[in-house]
Amino acid sequence: MIKKVTIHPQAGKGLTLEVFKETFGKLLANHDASAVWKECGGVTPKKKKEAKEAKED
Amino acid sequence: MSASFCGCGGSTNGNTGTVTGKGVTFKKTVSMILVQKYDSTGALNEIKESDFVNGVLPESFKDDMIYNSDPSKRWHPINQLETVDSVRGDRALSSAETGENTQTTAVAIRPFSAMVSYGGCVFLRNLERFACDQLAVFLIDNCGTLKGEVKRTDLTNLRPLAIAINNWYPNEIWAQGDENGMVNIQFEFDSRVRDSNCELIPAGNMDFDACDLDGLLNLVPDNPFTNITATTFTATLRLEYGPFAVKRLQTGLVITDFVIYNVTTDSVIAGAVAESSTGVYEFAIPAQTAADVIELRQATTGVQYTKQGFELVVQSFVAV
What we know:
The complex is a heterodimer of chains A (57) and B (320).
Chain A: E1 5-7, H1 17-24, H2 33-39, H3 48-56
Chain B: E1 2-4, E2 29-36, E3 47-48, H1 59-66, E4 76-78, E5 82-85, E6 92-94, E7 103-108, E8 111-116, H2 120-128, E9 135-141, E10 146-151, E11 154-159, E12 161-162, E13 169-173, E14 182-188, E15 198-201, E16 217-221, E17 232-239, E18 258-262, E19 267-269, E20 272-277, E21 280-284, E22 293-298, E23 310-312, E24 315-318
Parallel strand pairs in B: 16-23
Antiparallel strand pairs in B: 1-7, 2-4, 2-9, 3-11, 5-8, 6-7, 8-14, 9-10, 9-12, 10-11, 10-15, 13-14, 16-17, 17-21, 18-19, 18-22, 20-21, 22-24
């Protein structure tokens, strides 16, 4: 049986990529976990310097 | 059984004119839609004039009724009724001692009996679950016409025909000879149901086939869930139908069919699911606080339109 994986569209929200992979990695073994993470609301946190620059702009 | 004869029904003159070619009549009853008479708010379950769009009752209305997450508002269609028998008995009369001046004193209650040739014990069990409820039915004829009733003081709402309280009686007729076993449904209508208050919605005024509606199936998880870790649990989901100990597994469900709910924090958990073998669903969720109560629930929208509707029996586990 082909394993069809479905994931909540907000499953990446609030999770770092590392935690996302720990949580869903087993189910998403045949998928690009970081692409799925981004599709599901995963956001790379800005580094302190970038965040400061963005604030100044 | 009889009900009081309540007189002539109003002060407006009775006139006997009819309109040829436009009359809608109700023919042979082939289906019924069982509903609670009142919903959980105490409101009557009715079809309102305002539910129609350009004179047609839309399919979305039907879907809202059959798939309603509130069981008290839900429609429960029962199809392919056979051997329908619903004839009022004779009225009660009284006469003077001389035998003259005979008058109607009571009208007979209308009974209802029908056979259903499918479903067996599981279907019967589900019908019995309604036995303590205050029930009513819309009837459907073989032309797809729906019958309900209005009150003379409220002509804009079509009510289902009320069933007498504690009178719903489904039972099984065991097979004899070459015949199949059947489920028999018996009840009596409420004594206040008046034939002259009935109104019809013809098939042409409904954007769906009222003879061909299907109710929800119960979906029952094996208890308990298995493979419970901080970020996983597995649910095996079965229908009530099938042989003892090997009930039919429900395949094809996806994450939008479910709501994973943290009861302790009162919040939805965004998870993922894969059906690893038929009816076996492996869930992954972000780690929750240990000892939180997690429930697997059914989503209220989305699923019903791609597969036969179901009602998931909610089951919980404790997070580790």
